[in-house]
Write a structure and sequence with these properties.
Elements lengths: L8 E5 L11 H10 L4 E8 L13 H14 L5 E9 L5 H8 L6 E5 L2 E2 L2 E2 L10 H17 L5 E2 L15 H4 L1 H14 L2 E5 L12 H9 L4 E5 L12 H10 L6 E2 L3
Parallel strand pairs: 1-2, 2-3, 3-4, 4-7, 7-8, 8-9, 9-10
Antiparallel strand pairs: 5-6
Helix pairs in contact: 4-6
The structure holds zinc ion (ZN) (2 copies).
Length: 257
């Protein structure tokens, strides 16, 4: 049964304000109106790893001006949220905090894209034993939730893509994952259901992990496509909503509810 009661939102969208974005912020808003999205949340990359291609790319002033222009242009047709996806690590936590001091965002997504300074790039194998990399990854997720810097944890089990099949990820790191969920619940951090994967596969996080979060009393959710162009805007959001609905959560509060 389709979910009709939740607003149709996409709170994880990259425009050309991100180093790897392919469509302008204006093109994305125009497409969002065509798709009849109620709300769109831009979530531009902000990177603190010096070797990341995005390091130093994001320009807060340029971004703020583009958001202001889009809000004026789409005023009565689309709600536009000004967010950022910040790559988190404990070492850069103070730097992130300082950087945020004179900036104003509607929401912040904390994501882990690196383990031991090695990028988790799709299609690239990483040369760390799977058990170690999984534990390190989820420890970082847990620290991000603990930092209270973020409203949302992005693509919670992103690491899933980098581990050979056959490893039971959820049980390797079950305790650390539990701790991350407990910290999210106690700090009011939303779990993002990120539909970037092909639709015949689980989103990030997997169905099993969403259930584990619900078991911990999690009620706060965000939905995002992780679109980097107009082509994938909104893709998979309804399916993610249907999936969550099918897991019979006791209560669901979306970001900005
Ligand atoms: Zn990301
Ligand atoms: Zn992203």
């Amino acid at each position: 049964m389709p979910v009709v009661s939740w607003r149709l939102v996409d709170y994880h969208v990259h425009s050309t304000q991100s180093v790897d974005g392919r469509s302008s912020l204006d093109e994305i808003c125009s497409r969002a109106v065509e798709l009849k999205l109620d709300e769109i949340g831009f979530c531009e990359h902000v990177d603190f790893e010096p070797d990341d291609p995005g390091f130093g790319f994001f320009d807060y002033r340029r971004y703020s001006e583009a958001i202001d222009r889009a809000r004026a242009r789409y005023a009565d047709r689309l709600t536009i949220r000004k967010g950022a996806e910040i790559d988190y690590s404990l070492e850069s936590e103070n730097q992130i905090r300082t950087w945020l001091e004179d900036k104003d965002f509607d929401f912040l997504v904390g994501s882990i894209h690196y383990v031991d300074h090695i990028a988790l790039d799709l299609g690239k194998e990483i040369d760390i034993p799977p058990r170690a990399v999984v534990s390190k990854y989820y420890t970082k997720v847990s620290q991000a939730a603990e930092s209270r810097l973020f409203n949302v944890i992005g693509h919670f089990d992103f690491i899933r893509s980098y581990i050979p099949s056959g490893y039971d990820l959820a049980s390797i790191a079950s305790d650390i994952i539990d701790r991350a969920f407990e910290r999210m619940v106690s700090n009011g951090v939303h779990l993002e259901i990120n539909s970037r994967r092909k639709l015949d596969r689980d989103p990030f996080p997997s169905r099993r992990l969403i259930l584990q979060y619900l078991d911990k009393g999690g009620e706060l959710f965000s939905f995002g496509s992780d679109a980097h162009s107009t082509r994938s805007l909104g893709v998979g959001i309804r399916q993610s909503m249907d999936l969550l609905h099918s897991l019979r959560p006791k209560a669901v509060h979306l970001l900005f509810d």
